[in-house]
Amino acid sequence: MIFQDIKTFNKQFGYEPEIQNASRLPQAPKKIIVCGMGGSHLAADLLKAWKPALDVTIWSDYGLPILSERDKKECLIIASSYSGNTEETISAFLEAKERHLPLAAIAAGGELVSLAKSFGVPHVVLPDTHIQPRMALGFSIKAILTLIGEKSVLKEIGALEHSLTSARYEASGKKIAKQLKGRIPVMYASRRNEAIAKNWKIVLNETGKTPAFSNILPEMNHNEMTGFDIKKSTSTLSSKFYFVLLRDGDDDSRIIKRMKALEKVLKARKLKVSNVEISGENRATKIFSSINTAQWTAFHLAKIYGVEAEQVPMVEEFKKLIA
Length: 323
Description:
Helices cover 45% and strands 15% of the residues. The protein is an alpha/beta fold. The longest helix is centred in the C-terminal third of the chain and has 23 residues, at 283-305.
């Protein structure tokens, strides 16, 4: 099923969300707080990368972040959980309701939808296609944009239904997967592309069932980079990593220069490095084509390792232990 989810990823951008209890939704909130865990907040991360002028905060924990008196009046809290049963997100929803804060919800079902209905809270019910949350980014981002009233942005992202052709990215994803075999992937990007690097990491974790990490430039040049300064006593450790540099021609020229220098110093230490271009005719295409490439990479890496790509049994095991 996950193969089909990746292949038809673009179709999600044709989804038209409907808001239940829309009359109770605050108009033009100045601050958006998306409360969600794992794949259920990835769309908000990408929205920040795409439209940085939007004041979006992601909260991935129990309860709510500290809010100023102004935030309490001008914010919209969006509780996002694809399953509708994520305990941290339900905790955020209930606290926001108790404190009479502007509130909305996004879920495919579960307890979150039940709570939203019982309290008359504005909410969007996502298509219940049994897709994994990390794979539902098109559905989720359109739901968020609908709740915050960003009509022009909705139109822009809706165009991806026809312009984003998933099959174009499978070959490059398969090639990268072969390069990553037997290695621990580390994704590096600029701060403006941090959410893209993080998404690569997450799908490699969840779909590829492999350790993977991400960081940003220029920060990693001041600390993390030195952990790979090969010495005789640490060479075995460093040799296990494979560095994927997510290059973007629209990045700050100083970051582009740092990317080139980073590649040079890593290769000088005989470490494995690949460049993956974040490319496309506009920012939305650049973001989501890279995401789609990451999905294909993780899928083919799972095939190489002979592991089940879709489910996340370790997460389910953990949930049972804390239930």
